[in-house]
Request: fold
Amino acid sequence: MLIVLKKEAAQKEIDELLENIRKAGYNPDFLPGAERTAIGIRGNTKYIDEAELHLNNAVKEVLHVTKPYKLVSREWRIQDTLIRLKNGVTFGGSNPPVIIAGPCSVESETHVFETAECLFKNKVKAIRGGAFKPRTSPYAFQGLGVEGLKYLRKAADQFGLAVVTELLHLETLDEVVRYADMIQVGARNMQNFEMLRRLGEIRKPVLLKRGMAATIEEFLLAAEYILAGGNDQVVLCERGIRTFETATRNTLDLNAVAYIREVSHLPIIVDPSHGTGRASLVAPLTRAAIAAGAAGVIIEIHKEPSKALSDGFQTLNFQQFEELLRSISLARSESDAR
Ligand code: PEP
Ligand code: MN
Reply:
């Protein structure tokens, strides 16, 4: 429930209202904003007498948030949430799309430094790379672990980049928080509720990827767990879902991007690498994602994709990546000129 307050509401009336809500057994959220000031009540299972609320002169109107997710909804917060990483990279609002790029897995120190140098040369400010890898086969490369986190941090610090890396299991939370600027929750962990709860307690941005069989509602409810825990720095990531289609690895759901922009204030980015599973499709789907309103993209790149230890077939080499960057900056300047 949202209680929208009158612009001229007196502080005394607001305090009285908050006190009455607390007496009724709820923990009200005070939501000041440029467009409106409101009080939110979450998880209200008990009857709330609306007529009584209206007796307080501060109350303009009472709205019912009909969606099961509350804190992540646009009803709760009208304006776009901006998520800023330590090096200044900002997602959301009118900021240009953020490019995050790097290998699927961190493979060696040299490999990470070569990638970081390529990003720096191309003015890309965030590096991705998995140190702990969720692999379908137990025989596949599982990642370098903490060693990999250290390489990412070292290379990122040398080139002024932000580190985006996956938290695969909770036992490594402290290490990942220590070395990363943005903590990725992979598709396979999107409904690891214990992990979501713990990420609600920390104060670092989270990149929450959509589960491969998750509906948009389940995706937003997963984000709701993190916000409900007290961490409102969440960037969503559409990375493709399983459908009957087998020509591509996944079906990239760009509907989700445009839809989520309508119903949520959180920024949403797109992963065209996992979304398509094919290097040749990464550039067109990056452009489509930006056209659909994505706040950024996360792209797998590697010096020699054919030698990559994971996901080589969907990975761009440095030259292909540079061509893609040129194509989006051209597209951007054309739209700016319009
Ligand atoms: C990844 O980003 O390398 C990854 C494993 O992605 P997802 O969780 O989307 O499969
Ligand atoms: Mn990958």
Remarks:
- The two ends are 41 Å apart (CA to CA).
- The CA atoms of residues 65 and 75 lie 7 Å apart.
